[in-house]
Amino acid sequence: MKAYDKVKIARLTTRPTALDYINHCFTGFLELHGDRLFADDKAVVGGLAWFNDIPVTVIGIQKGKDLKENMERNFGQAHPEGYRKALRLMKQAEKFHRPAICFVNTSGAYCGVGAEERGQGEAIARNLYELSGLKTPIISIIIGEGGSGGAIALATADRVWMLENSVYAILSPEGFASILWKDGSRAEEAADIMKITVKDLYDLGVIEKVIEEVPGGAGEDFEFTANLIKHNLQEELPVLMAYSPEEIAENRYKRFRAFGVYNE
Questions:
Q1: Radius of gyration of the chain from Cα atoms?
Q2: Residue 134's closest CA among 87, 66, 171?
Q3: pTM listed for this prediction
Q4: In which residue ranges of the chain is pLDDT below 70?
Q5: Of 34, 56, 156, 249, which sits 20 to 30 A from 258 (CA to CA)?
Q6: What end-to-end distance do the CA atoms of the chain give, in Å?
Q7: In terms of Cα–Cα distance, which of 233, 165, 204 is closest to 16?
Q8: Is-contact 46 60, C-beta < 8 A?
Q9: Residues 128, 155: contact at Cβ < 8 Å?
C-alpha cells in the first residue's frame, strides 16, 4: 500500500474517534472542561477515568463523524485553549500521580486569526516544554492523522504508538507539496518521500509500537483494534508506573535526545 493510501484511510469519516477509544478502553470517564484562561475547546476532550483499577487522565483530539459534529469540533483542529486545557489536565495528573494517555487525530493546529491572536505558537511550545519534564507517565497514540506541532503538543511522551493506518508528519502531504514544488496536486508524490507511515517511523525509532488494524482500517472492526490498544496499555502502564518521578523525566529526556544520534 502506498503512503498516500494510508493518508486516505486515516482521514476517513468512518474512522473511530478519540472518544470511541476512551469509552471502550476506560470506565467512569468524567470529562473536564476549559483551560481556566479563555474557553473550552471542543476539539480537545479530556478528563478522569479508570483503567482497570488504575486512575488515569485521558485526553484526545476529537474529530466529528458528520459535518455538524466536525464543525462543532473544528474538524479536530485545536485552538490555543485546547492545548492549554490538555496541559492543565496533564499537570493535574502529575500532581495526583496519575498516568496520562493521549489519543491524537488532527491535521494540525488551527491557524485562524483568533487562534494566532491568542498565542497558538506559544501554547504548543509551552506544551512541549512542560511535557518534556512532566514527572508522570505519558502514552500517546496516533489514531488517525498526526499533523505537525498540533500533534506533537500531545505526543511529547514516554511511549508513542500508532495505529497501522495512521500517519505522523511535520505537515500534510498537500502542504509539503505546495511548499516544496508550489503544487499541492503532487501530494501523493510527497507522501512517498516524507516517511510518514508506521513502518518508516518505527524503523526510525520515532514510535515504539504499531497497533494492528483489519484490512480497510479500524472502522471495519473497531473492537479488534480497541482491544489491542487496551491489551498493550495493560502491559505497558505497570512498567512505566514502576519508575520514580525523577526516572520518568530522565527517561523521557533520553528518548528524545536519542533521535539525534540515529544512523542509517
A1: 17
A2: 87
A3: 0.93
A4: 260-264
A5: 56
A6: 23
A7: 165
A8: yes
A9: no
Our separate counts of H helices and E strands in the chain read 12, 8
C-alpha cell at 212: 494492528
Residue with cell 474557553: 39
- Tell me the longest C-alpha to C-alpha distance in the chain: 53
**Within a 13 Å sphere around the CA of 3, how many CA atoms are in the beta-carbon half?**
22
At 118 the pLDDT is: 95
pLDDT of residue 259: 75
pLDDT at 264: 46
Contact 46, 101 (CB under 8 A): no
Q: DSSP of 175-233, one letter per residue?
A: HHHHHHHS-GGGHHHHHHHHT-SHHHHHHTTS-SEEE---TT-GGG-HHHHHHHHHHHH
List, for residues 64-82, the tens digit of each pLDDT value.
999 999 999 999 999 999 9
Q: Which residue has the cell 500534510?
A: 172
